[in-house]
Fold this protein.
Amino acid sequence: MSEPQPLLELRDVTAGYAQDIDVLRDIRLRVDTGQITGLIGLNGAGKSTLVKTICGFLPPKTGQVLFDGQDIGGIAPHKLIDLGICCIPQESSLFPHLSVQENLMLPLLGRPRRFGKDARDRLQEAFEVFPALREKRSQAAGSLSGGQQKQLEFAKAWLQQPRLCLVDEPSIGLSPRISEEVFVWIERFAAMKMGILLIDHNVRRVVRMSDRVCVLSLGKITAEGASSEFQGDLHQQVQQWLGLHF
Ligand SMILES: Nc1ncnc2c1ncn2[C@@H]1O[C@H](COP(=O)(O)OP(=O)(O)OP(=O)(O)O)[C@@H](O)[C@H]1O
Ligand SMILES: [Mg+2]
């Protein structure tokens, strides 16, 4: 039986910021509906560059970025929401001077055909899923704590009902308790049939919750497989894959 078509597939993608320097080389990667693909690698390996390439901020020099079988390489980033792709970037995507509610509604209001009259109802649902935001809804997003801002990022993504969510370093700078909450939201997103590309420096957590794992090292995928292949003496294996084990 042939495998189902991946939700997201990168085929031999090469990309970089300067014409003659490739940060990513021959990247092959897939994310399936309702599954988590974990991407791990050292600082500077190119993980965020990969996210920027999928989101069209950095067009691939060669290769293809396929979403649902359609080549979206170099897509205008504002078209992603309409396709059903959402990115929670390593840096904030919030407008700090706008209120919590305005940040949540902004992507919806510009898209009446996709979200229509349900937008206000969905906002109320979002406050039920992320209750801490309800009481803060009139406050400027920039006045929230780091954990609350992360919650706002996830609520904003949840409201968009994406089919694919790219999550780059969601636990960075958060306490262990809030980080754990973040990972539970991600599992919940996958249970809602989203495909997830998850990048995080908490390698053990990423391996534990992912279906597939990819290791990126100096812009190349150096190991890839089912997460079960990455368990066991994880630390030693990952060190080896990252080229640190001598
Ligand atoms: N805007 C940019 N212009 C030029 N080079 C960049 C730019 N952004 C990143 N780079 C370079 O690309 C390489 C990969 O960076 P990237 O941010 O993708 O790494 P990363 O794996 O996400 O690292 P981290 O774990 O620190 O987030 C690095 O050498 C970095 O210096
Ligand atoms: Mg990064």
